[in-house]
Amino acid sequence: MNASMKLGLSTVALLVAGGLAAYAPDASAQVGPLKNTGNSRCLTVTSTGAAITQPCNGSGIQAWSQGSTAAGYLLKNVATGRCLDRNAAGTVFTSACNSGVRSQLWIRLNTAATTARFRSSVDGLMLNSTAAGAINLVPGAANPLQIWAY
User: Fold this and answer.
1) Full DSSP string of the chain
2) How far apart are CA 111 and CA 92, in angstroms?
3) d(CA 69, CA 90)
4) What's residue 141's pLDDT?
């Protein structure tokens, strides 16, 4: 049995055991940094789980898996294994991955072959970085600070 079949069977077993609430990226999940096109900084997770952008350095805390689900994408940090999440106030952070939690699902709106905007499935607000590197959610606009290269 080849490696991708083993991964596929493992994912199916995990999903069945977890009642479809667990997350395991499929073999086609994209993995790499998410670089903001407006400030050239990479999406990063801090030791407290906060989401920020910092100068890109190739570290694992800047690598994200984009796992497609029927309802959107789970953005999973490779180093921590936690997914990008948001609360009702619009604060963006990471928490334990769960594809059944709507606040962790992001709609990827491709703007080009390797760039996209990520819209929250909760209220349609866009993942945004400020020029200084803070992450927030804002209404959609033609703004490079809402576009992420992957």
Assistant:
1) --HHHHHHHHHHHHHHHTTT-S----TT-EEE--EETTT-EEEEE-TTSBEEEEE----GGG-EEEEEETTEEEEEETTT-EEEEE-TT--EEEEE--TT-GGG-EEEEEEETTEEEEEETTT-PEEEE-TTSBEEEE---S-GGG-EE-
2) 22
3) 22
4) 84
What pLDDT was estimated at residue 29?
74
d(CA 45, CA 76) in angstroms, rounded, equals 10
Give pLDDT, residue 147. Answer: 97
Rounded mean pLDDT for each run of 10 residues along the chain, 150 residues in total:
39 34 52 97 97 97 96 97 96 97 97 96 97 95 93
Q: Tell me, what amino acid is at 110? A: N
Closest CA to 112 of 52, 37, 53, 32: 37
Contact assessment for residue 138 and residue 146, using Cβ atoms and an 8 Å cutoff? yes
